[in-house]
Specification:
Layout lengths: L2 H9 L19 H15 L3 E9 L5 E9 L3 E6 L5 E6 L2 E6 L4 E6 L5 H5 L5 H4 E9 L2 E8 L7 E7 L5 E7 L5 E11 L23
Antiparallel strand pairs: 1-2, 1-11, 2-3, 3-4, 4-5, 5-6, 7-8, 8-9, 9-10, 10-11
Length: about 210
């Protein structure tokens, strides 16, 4: 399994997306779709320093919950609730998958992963990804993306509230057609995140107690 696929199979956040360019028509958006994309970009760029809860559902129906911490640019943490011993940390340069039970850490450059798209200093989905589709249905807006420089077929769907454009969920479909979904809730701006939350410590793990 290649590096990117291993990261995103583990965290259920993003997968490496297709290396083959989509037809130019995939980027031909209507005026309404361009407006939706602009509002989606604005919403993502407003996520500067936040906390929240997440529920992850894997392709096999398995469910995991935890706490999300985000500080743009570049920093992200997924702290999984027990019984999981997993935590995912991006310190702005590395993405680290840490297993507290096994006391192991695997690191990958952030710049080689699609995480860089939403953790960029300036998020621009139309610039950094191919837009496969945009549509509104039953109170939600969905934006389907394909990364411009991936190594395995797949797609990412971002789901926003159609009124507030708050990010509610994303769903990843991998090369085998398997879906992993992550739903967000209780998103709140936080001004006092401990810098240690985003520190990759290969000798141990930092226990997060904020907001739990």
């Amino acid at each position: 399994m290649n590096v990117r696929a291993k990261i995103f199979q583990t965290i259920g956040l993003f997968v490496a997306l297709a290396a083959l360019a989509l037809p130019a028509a995939a980027q031909d958006l209507t005026e309404e779709q361009r407006d939706v994309l602009s509002r989606a970009n604005l919403s993502l760029n407003q996520l500067q320093q936040i906390t929240g809860d997440f529920v992850q559902v894997g392709p096999d129906g398995s469910r995991a919950e935890g706490k999300l911490y985000l500080q743009r640019p570049g920093k992200l943490r997924f702290e999984y609730d027990p019984p999981s011993k997993l935590q995912i940390v991006s310190d702005g340069f590395w993405v680290a998958i840490q297993d507290r039970k096994m006391k192991t850490t695997e690191k990958y450059p952030l710049a080689t992963t699609p995480l860089k798209i939403i953790l960029a200093n300036n998020v621009d989905l139309g610039r950094d990804a191919f837009i496969r589709d945009i549509y509104t249905q039953e109170g939600f807006v969905t934006v389907t993306l394909q990364e411009k420089a991936g190594e395995a077929d797949g797609s990412l769907v971002l789901i926003f509230d159609s009124q507030t454009y708050d990010l509610r969920q994303w769903t990843v479909t991998d090369a085998q057609g398997l879906d992993t979904s992550v739903a967000l809730s209780n998103i709140a701006t936080s001004q006092d995140l401990d810098s240690k939350i985003f520190r990759v410590n290969e000798l141990g793990t930092f226990e997060v107690n904020q907001g739990r």
